[in-house]
Amino acid sequence: MATMRRLIVLAAFALAATVSGGYAQEAARSALPPGVSAERSWIEPALLAAARREGSVTIFASVNEEEALPLWTIFERETGIKAEYVRGSDSQLIARILVEARAGKQSWDILQNTGVSKIPREFLAPVDLPEARFAAFETRGPNGLWHGVAANFGVPAYNTQLVGRAVLPKTYAEFLKHPEWAGRIAIDDSDGEWLAALYKHFGEREGAALARDLATTLKPVMVQGHLALARSVGSGEYALALNNTLNLTANLKLGGAPTDFWVLDPVVVYYNHVGVSAKAPHPNAARLAANFLLSEPAQRQLASKGRIPTRRGIETNPPGLVAALDGKTIIPIQFDADEESRWRRLFRDVMHGPAR
Description:
This protein is an alpha/beta fold. The chain has two domains: 25-151 and 270-317, 3-Layer(aba) Sandwich (D-Maltodextrin-Binding Protein, domain 2), CATH 3.40.190; 154-268 and 325-351, Periplasmic binding protein-like II (D-Maltodextrin-Binding Protein, domain 2, 3-Layer(aba) Sandwich). Helices cover 36% and strands 19% of the residues. It is built from eleven helices and 13 strands. It has helices at residues 2-11, 45-54, 65-79, 90-102, 192-202, 204-218, 226-235, 246-254, 283-293, 296-304, 337-351; strands at residues 17-18, 56-61, 82-87, 110-113, 124-125, 147-159, 185-188, 221-223, 240-245, 259-261, 267-277, 308-309, 329-332. Strands 1, 2, 3, 4, 5, 6, 7, 8, 9, 10, 11, 12 and 13 form a 13-stranded mixed β-sheet that branches. Helix 2 crosses helix 9, helix 5 crosses helix 6 (204-218) and helix 5 packs across helix 11. The chain is globular.
């Protein structure tokens, strides 16, 4: 038990917090110096001059090009600095970073994905980004090694043509009253963050017992990837998702799919982070680009594509996504590489349940 308790403490870099009202209403501009435009507050003249002398910045990121290229077009337009964008999955980018490090070279300046915390910490430069002062949540990693760019909240989802809202459970324990959902409910097959949040919220013993009971009663189907899971529920392949990323469900609903979410305690949150390379080929441009990702124009652009911004005062698309979390217990989880491996093994051990 002591070992498990230590893992849980390590897994969450912040204590559970309750979201209070006012996320969308609190104006980010309130902390700006007089006469400084929020649209350009992220541009520090001295840093911009140094970054322009470097000429370019290389971004490693997992965000698809449809979202990313308009974002970095804003950066290029405002700074005159060329943004070289390299897209890959978290695992692909981390593998490339490790290979480059072994070869004694490094091509990346910033890394933007959910895997920033999983690379060795000595690969990252501690940075204090001025735009981080507008964060709506505690999204700063230890010593400023990473900063939250977009939030991924975990909530259940359902197909509105297959399940009525009136019968939705009000707690995770109430799922156990619905054995008829066995085999009709799904979850991402590597959702260790969700399991860690259950353990943190309910305690080790109760959290483990609840998770095992859910697995035994519901026999959830394991789906690879949160987007695939959201689409499967939206299409009616599965009636419900035990947990999934809130904005993916909301985006499908916005596109006309018969799907929706509801909120139960606890709500796990993990972040799409940005980290600056400790050996960045373009260190000044790297800091400028990282600060840009937390700026008002960048956060508005991310929100327009369905991401949940971490900057206060930026409304979600569709509106009200974060307001729906008011009064719920939010548990931030951010794994390093070892913690991720341990929790994913535990998730599979627990959620695959007894032989079926």
